[in-house]
C-alpha cells in the first residue's frame, strides 16, 4: 500500500538503462541476470513512481547498428516513453567499453582515436537531443593512465579541454538546449584518472571557452571511495552554481566502485546529503547510478530500484523532523549565532574596518576554553535517524 515514502513523479527520481539493466557481471564472474529490454525498464520504473530514465548511447543502440536499425530502436523507445509518461533528462556516451578506447577517448595518444571519440559523442548528443535530454554527462572512464610515463599529463588535460570546447561549439551550432556535466572519479578502471574529484573539475571548467555551459555531476561512490566527504564536494558545486546533475548510490571507503543502493551503507552521510539538497533547493533530477546486488534476479532489481527512492524519501522526512525539532534548532541557533557583535568586523574589506579589527583585543585563552556543544546536537541527529526521537 502507498505511504508517505512512496515515490512520485514530482520527486524527480531517475535511473539509467545501465543501472537497473545491469546483468551482474563482475571481474570474477559471468552475468547472473538476463538483459532487461529498454521498453520494459521504462514501464517498470514508471510503475514504481520514477520520473525518468537516462542512458548511454549504446545502452539503447548497439555500437555497430545501421542507421535503419538505430531509427527502429529509437522509435520503439520513444513510444515506450510516451506510453508511460517518462522523460529522458540526461544522456551520455560510452567511451570506455570498446577496446578502441583502451587509452581514453579525449586523452588517447592516438589522434585517430580522439577523432572517432568526437564522432561518436556528436552522434550520441544528437540522440540525447532527440529524446529531450537537457543535460549531457561526461564520465572519463578511460581518461587516465596505468603507467604515467606513457602520457604527458599537461598534454592530456589540454586534449580534454580541446574536446569539450569542440563539443560545446557543436551543441551551439546545432541549436540544442543542452548543458554538459562532468563526472569525477579518482581511480578504476584506470590506475590514475585525470580529474579525480569534483574540485578538479570545478577548476578545469573555468579554463573552457564556454564555462557557462559546463557544470559537474558528482557521484557518491566516486568521492567516497577515496575517503572524501561527498556532501562537502556537492556544497562547493552548489556554491559555484555548477551542480547540474547528481548521481546517488552508496560505497564503502577504500573499495572498488561498488554502486550500492542509495543509503545502504552510510545512513549519516546520506542524511547529510539529502539535507543539503533539500534545504538549498536543488531542483534537478536525482539520478540513482547504482546496481542491484549480484545475488538478485529481476524481481530483486525492482526491489533495489524502489529501495533507492524510498530511502531518499525516508531521509527527506528525517530532515524535516530534524529541522522541526525545537531543541535541535535551539542548539543550532546558539551555535550559529555566537558572538554576533563581531560580524561587522568581517565580510568585504575596507580600510576603516581593517583599522578597527587591528585594534581589537581578543582573550584567546577564554575563547579557546569554551565548549561548543557539538556532541549534543550530533547525538540528537543520531537519535532522529535511529527513530527514537
Short précis:
Helix content is 47%, strand content 9%.
Task: Write structural notes for this entry.
By secondary structure, the protein is α/β, with parallel strands linked by helices. The chain has two domains: 9-324, TIM Barrel (Alpha-Beta Barrel), CATH 3.20.20.150; 326-385, no CATH class. The chain is 47% helix and 9% strand. The chain is built from 15 helices and ten strands. It has helices spanning 17-20, 38-48, 57-60, 67-84, 111-131, 153-174, 198-205, 220-224, 230-239, 267-279, 298-324, 326-336, 351-359, 364-369, 374-385, and strands at residues 13-16, 52-56, 90-92, 135-139, 144-145, 179-183, 192-193, 214-216, 247-248, 286-288. The strands form two sheets. It has an eight-stranded parallel sheet. Strands 5-7 form a two-stranded antiparallel ribbon. Strand 9 (247-248), helix 10 and strand 10 (286-288) form a beta-alpha-beta unit. Helix 9 packs parallel to helix 10, helix 10 (267-279) packs across helix 11 (298-324) and helix 12 (326-336) packs antiparallel against helix 15 (374-385). The longest helix has 27 residues, at 298-324. It is globular, with a radius of gyration of 23 Å. The two termini are 25 Å apart. The model has no long low-confidence stretch (mean pLDDT 97).
Amino acid at each position: 500500500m502507498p505511504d508517505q515514502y512512496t515515490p512520485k513523479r514530482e520527486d524527480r527520481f531517475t535511473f539509467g538503462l545501465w543501472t537497473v539493466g545491469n546483468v551482474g557481471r563482475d571481474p570474477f564472474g559471468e552475468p547472473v541476470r538476463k538483459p532487461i529490454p529498454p521498453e520494459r525498464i521504462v514501464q517498470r520504473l514508471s510503475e514504481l513512481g520514477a520520473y525518468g530514465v537516462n542512458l548511454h548511447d549504446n545502452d539503447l543502440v548497439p555500437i555497430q547498428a545501421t542507421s535503419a536499425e538505430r531509427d527502429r530502436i529509437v522509435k520503439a523507445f520513444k513510444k515506450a516513453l510516451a506510453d508511460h509518461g517518462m522523460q529522458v533528462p540526461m544522456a551520455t556516451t560510452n567511451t570506455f567499453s570498446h577496446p578502441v578506447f583502451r587509452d581514453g577517448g579525449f586523452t588517447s595518444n592516438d589522434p585517430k582515436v580522439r577523432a572517432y571519440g568526437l564522432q561518436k559523442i556528436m552522434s550520441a548528443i544528437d540522440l540525447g537531443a532527440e529524446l529531450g535530454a537537457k543535460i549531457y554527462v561526461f564520465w572519463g572512464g578511460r581518461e587516465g593512465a596505468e603507467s604515467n610515463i606513457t602520457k604527458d599529463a599537461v598534454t592530456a588535460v589540454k586534449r580534454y579541454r580541446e574536446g569539450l570546447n569542440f563539443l560545446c561549439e557543436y551543441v551551439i551550432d546545432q541549436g540544442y538546449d543542452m548543458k554538459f556535466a562532468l563526472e569525477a572519479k579518482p581511480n578504476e578502471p584506470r590506475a590514475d584518472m585525470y580529474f579525480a574529484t569534483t574540485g578538479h573539475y570545478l577548476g578545469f571548467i573555468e579554463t573552457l571557452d564556454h564555462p557557462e555551459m559546463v557544470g559537474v555531476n558528482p557521484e557518491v561512490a566516486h568521492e567516497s571511495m577515496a575517503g572524501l566527504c561527498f556532501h562537502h564536494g556537492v556544497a562547493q558545486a552548489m556554491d559555484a552554481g555548477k551542480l547540474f546533475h547528481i548521481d546517488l548510490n552508496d560505497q564503502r571507503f577504500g573499495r572498488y566502485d561498488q554502486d550500492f543502493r542509495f543509503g545502504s551503507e552510510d545512513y549519516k552521510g546520506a542524511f547529510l546529503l539529502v539535507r543539503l539538497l533539500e534545504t538549498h533547493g536543488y531542483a534537478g533530477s536525482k539520478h540513482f547510478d547504482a546496481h542491484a546486488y549480484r545475488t538478485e534476479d529481476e524481481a530483486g532489481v525492482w526491489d533495489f530500484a524502489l529501495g533507492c527512492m524510498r530511502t531518499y524519501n525516508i531521509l527527506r522526512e528525517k530532515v524535516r523532523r530534524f529541522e522541526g525539532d525545537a531543541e535541535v534548532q535551539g542548539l543550532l541557533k546558539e551555535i550559529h549565532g555566537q558572538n554576533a557583535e563581531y560580524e561587522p568586523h568581517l565580510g568585504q574589506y575596507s580600510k576603516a574596518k581593517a583599522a578597527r579589527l587591528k585594534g581589537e583585543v581578543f582573550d584567546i585563552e577564554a575563547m579557546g576554553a569554551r565548549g561548543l556543544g557539538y556532541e549534543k546536537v550530533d547525538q540528537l541527529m543520531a537519535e532522529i535517524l535511529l527513530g527514537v526521537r
